[in-house]
Amino acid sequence: MEDAERRPVSRPIAVDRQTFRELVGIGGAALAGYGAWLHYPPLGFMVGGFILVGLAILGTMRGEP
Q1: For residue 49, what are the domain limits?
Q2: Residue 14 and residue 37: Cα distance in Å, rounded?
């Protein structure tokens, strides 16, 4: 088989545990905000803001001194 006839082998997509947790968290935050917005539209923005503030606080607390 010549080099021109070879096709590159594609690798399966690998997602580590931390990336999976982050994707699930983003999905959960989106669903919580959307559900709150369905009930009362301004509440959707409030839920999103609370989630971002909570993540900022957790990120600050976990940061290295």
Answers
A1: 16-58
A2: 34
Q: Could you read off the pLDDT of 4-24 as tens digits, one per residue?
A: 567 777 888 887 888 888 889
Question: Is residue 2 included in any domain, yes or no?
Answer: no
Q: Tell me whether residue 25 is in a domain.
A: yes
What is the C-alpha separation between 51 and 31, in angstroms, rounded? Answer: 12
CA distances from 15 to 3, 12, 19 (A): 31, 10, 6
Q: Total domain count for the chain?
A: 1
The answer to whether 37 touches 43, Cβ cutoff 8 Å, is yes
Share the mean pLDDT of the chain: 85
Helix (H, G, I), strand (E, B) or coil at 12: coil
Average pLDDT over residues 15-36: 90
Q: How far apart are CA 10 and CA 32, in angstroms?
A: 36
